[in-house]
Write a structure and sequence with these properties.
About 35% of the residues lie in helices and about 20% in strands. It has a single domain (about 1-290), classed as Alpha/Beta hydrolase fold, catalytic domain (Rossmann fold, 3-Layer(aba) Sandwich). It has about 290 residues and is α/β, with parallel strands linked by helices.
Length: about 290
């Protein structure tokens, strides 16, 4: 058996935080605690990441109330649908889900498959399709992702550090943010190499564009104005294709807007979670906390 580790904070309506590729639940930093002033926040370590590894789940040291959730060994435990299956089996009550990057694709897939389980979506630096395809240019070149996959086999630690540098490139306080991310990266141990490779496979193969019109949960799409990994154009597309969505553009932010601009991020999420009257016919655009025209 292996175990899925979850840090729990606060009380009230549940909000599940799902991290991005190669990361862990601790990468949310102080944002989890700040959101816990308003909601019951659950920050998960995905299978093979952080303390969600064989023999490691029991060692969690989150600042909130920890949970160690067992999950079964599946034939392909790191595929997109297998991850959704595990999350669904562990979280029985309907909840809101906040997914960052790869975590956003997991959240979208979960919402499409089990709409009764997901009440709201917060999609942070997310895209329905991570790599370029015919007619889809606002994405990473497939060759670049393939180079990452090859480098992963040679030196996964260096590859992860390179990925961190791409996430903060162009962001306000870039140097400080990169130092903080690098400090937290292996704070829960080293991720499983198989999980890392499988995550890249998900990013390479996943294309959720056709599913978006059927995902009817209220959604908040948060993007960094300077994000080079999931460009703002992808976030515009995501917000436009989801039937009930709003877009928040954070100026000066790159791929980790919740870390570089935590105050704005918290304001956007709290406002969205408390707004029961989103207008699906015309999703508002938000820049720097103010509504803006498309």
């Amino acid at each position: 058996m292996v175990a899925m580790h979850v840090d729990g904070y606060g009380s009230g309506a549940p909000l599940l935080l799902i991290h991005g590729w190669g990361m862990h639940g601790g990468m949310w930093g102080g944002i989890a605690e700040r959101l816990a002033e308003h909601f019951r926040v659950l920050a998960v370590d995905l299978p093979g990441h952080g303390w969600s590894k064989t023999g490691k789940g029991q060692e969690g040291r989150g600042k909130g109330k920890d949970q160690v959730l067992p999950f079964s060994l599946l034939p392909s435990p790191f595929s997109l649908d297998a991850i959704v299956d595990e999350l669904s089996s562990q979280f029985g009550e309907p909840l809101a889900v906040c997914g960052w990057s790869l975590g956003g694709q997991i959240a979208l897939r979960w919402a499409a498959r089990e709409p009764e389980k997901i009440k709201r979506l917060v999609l942070v630096a997310s895209t329905p399709c991570f790599v370029r395809r015919p007619g889809w240019e606002c994405a990473m070149a497939q060759e670049t992702l393939a180079e990452f996959a090859a480098a992963l086999q040679q030196d996964y630690a260096l590859t992860l550090r390179r990925f961190l540098a791409l996430q903060v490139r162009g962001s306000d306080n870039e140097r400080e943010l990169l130092a903080a991310l690098r400090s937290a990266l292996f704070s829960r141990g080293e991720p499983d190499l198989g999980a890392l490779q499988a995550g890249l496979d998900i990013l390479r193969d996943c294309d959720l564009r056709s599913a978006l019109p059927g995902i009817r949960q209220p959604a908040l799409v948060v993007c960094g104005e300077r994000d080079t990994l999931t460009p703002p154009q992808a976030s515009h597309y995501l917000a436009a294709q989801l039937p009930d969505a709003r877009l928040a553009i954070i100026k000066g932010a790159a791929h980790a807007p919740f870390l570089s601009h935590p105050d704005e991020f918290v304001v956007h999420v709290v406002s969205f979670m408390r707004d029961a009257n989103l207008n699906p016919s015309q999703p508002p655009l938000v820049r720097g906390g103010e509504l803006a025209s498309p």
